[in-house]
Write a structure and sequence with these properties.
mainly beta
Length: 276
């Protein structure tokens, strides 16, 4: 049996996917995926509440193995339409003013059920044949964990959203991109050999809000953005203050700027003075 990660958009084909969750009775915590083929029969129909039901019978070399059932209905026996989004209780025992939903299979069903579903595609012929149907859903069985998934019948849509929840968009993707650290030494004074005053540039930017400057240092000595420092390339190293200005002498001089963003990603940048 294929896994949901291998389920690319099925061009006009039919498939059923559940994203398992620990604590969910129906999936037992396992992902479920079936695509219609010679051993897997999809039987969609209009149910007695004018909704759509899909029976999936799974065989192995002609021997019946298991059955899965998907049922959905709008409140008040109104036919389902593209764009419908409903909170639901267990089909077919929902109240008249409530939508009904039931996802069961492999001998497991819910006694009590809460959930929601969204109709993505639906096309029903005059004779009641379900020509096309696509629905995403979330279901909690007997107070257990939320299970999400979807059914596609002759659909061109992509896989269901594994974070599906009406009125509550899925969480933003995890931010793994580090912020951009900028380090600069802008010359502000006259050059005397390999000595001059420099203006410290240290900043952090990010695609998402929350980037912060961790710190800036020259050869390990803390400096601040906008600070003016006297930097001298010399065979001897020393650190002093001249007229209230930090003065650093060293064989090599490096400004290091370190940044962090709200997701904890870090970055740094380095620059050495250029005497022009």
């Amino acid at each position: 049996m294929a896994t949901p990660t291998s389920a690319a958009a099925q061009g006009g084909e039919s498939y059923f996917v559940l994203y398992g969750a620990d604590g969910d009775w129906i999936t037992q915590g396992n992902d479920v995926f079936f695509a219609e083929d010679a051993d897997t029969l999809f039987v969609p129909s209009v149910n007695f509440d004018n909704g759509v039901s899909v029976r999936i019978d799974v065989y192995n070399s002609g021997v019946f193995q298991e059955r899965w059932q998907i049922d959905a209905a709008a409140p008040g026996d109104v036919p389902l339409a593209v764009g419908d989004e409903f909170e639901a209780t267990r089909f077919p025992f929902q109240a008249a003013e409530s939508a009904g939903l039931s996802i069961s299979g492999d001998g497991r069903g819910c006694n009590q059920l809460t959930g929601e579903f969204a109709v993505r595609e639906v096309a029903i012929a005059a004779d009641g044949t379900v020509d096309q149907f696509a629905m995403d859903f979330r279901q909690s069985c007997d107070g257990g964990a939320d299970m999400v998934g979807g059914i596609r019948i002759n659909s061109l849509l992509d896989n269901p959203d594994p974070n599906f929840m009406i009125g509550n968009p899925p969480p933003p993707p995890v931010d793994t991109t580090p912020p951009t650290a900028t380090a600069g030494l802008d010359q502000t004074g006259r050059i005397k050999g390999t000595s001059s005053a420099f203006f410290v540039v240290a900043s952090c930017t990010d695609d998402n809000p929350g980037a912060a400057l961790v710190g800036a240092d020259i050869n390990g000595i803390a400096v601040e953005p906008g600070q003016t420092v006297q930097l001298t390339l010399s065979s001897k190293s020393s650190v002093s203050e001249r007229k209230g200005k930090l003065a650093i002498k060293a064989p090599s001089i490096v400004l290091t700027v370190s940044c962090i963003d709200a997701a904890g990603n870090t970055s740094s940048a380095q620059v050495s003075p250029v005497y022009e």
